[in-house]
From TrEMBL:
Keywords from the UniProt entry: Membrane, Transmembrane, Transmembrane helix
Gene Ontology biological process terms from the UniProt entry: autophagy of mitochondrion; macroautophagy
Stated name of the protein: DUF4149 domain-containing protein
Highest taxon, organism lineage: Eukaryota
Family: Belongs to the ATG33 family.
Length: 168
């Protein structure tokens, strides 16, 4: 059961990293090719809302699974990497990256742009919002990627460490 929690947490962290990476490298640059600023602003607002929902879901699953794996492990197998990885998943998804980069106001700007009338949307403001979000997602990708590597290395170590404990 503990191994299942470790696997689910690490897998969810991998999905989070993939979502952030694809937003940074594929989706956000593609938004800048849309023909009008209002269309880009509406799409950016929708994209931000949907990605935030996925971040919250997978972030909670990853954090909870890894924390449960730590809590349920026997004391000899209670590895701190589980807590560190859970904290990285939570920080990467719960707004920690935005706060660290001081772009917490970005959500309101994007939401306001999506709700604005079409003739009021400024193309340069939309471009700046896309670029700011791209920086935030790039940092998030790095943070989540580090967490994913910690989880994979930890799982690998658990596998070989358990063999050593059994005398294999």
């Amino acid at each position: 059961m503990i191994s299942l929690f470790k696997f689910v947490g690490t897998f969810s962290l991998g999905l989070l990293t993939g979502i952030s990476y694809s937003l940074t490298t594929i989706t956000l640059p593609s938004l800048l090719t849309l023909p009008t600023a209002p269309l880009c602003a509406r799409t950016l607002s929708t994209l931000r809302a949907r990605s935030t929902a996925h971040y919250r879901l997978f972030g909670r699953v990853a954090s909870a699974s890894l924390a449960l794996a730590f809590a349920l492990s026997p004391s000899r197998a209670r590895h701190p990497y589980l807590l560190w990885t859970a904290l990285v998943a939570a920080a990467g998804c719960a707004g920690g990256v935005e706060l660290a980069l001081r772009h917490a106001h970005e959500d309101d700007d994007i939401r306001d742009m999506g709700a604005a009338r079409e003739d009021e949307v400024n193309g340069e403001e939309v471009r700046e919002a896309v670029e700011r979000l791209r920086v935030v997602e790039g940092v998030r990708t790095g943070v989540l990627g580090i967490g994913l590597m910690m989880g994979i290395v930890g799982l690998w170590g658990d596998r070989f460490g358990s063999r050593r404990l059994r005398g294999c």
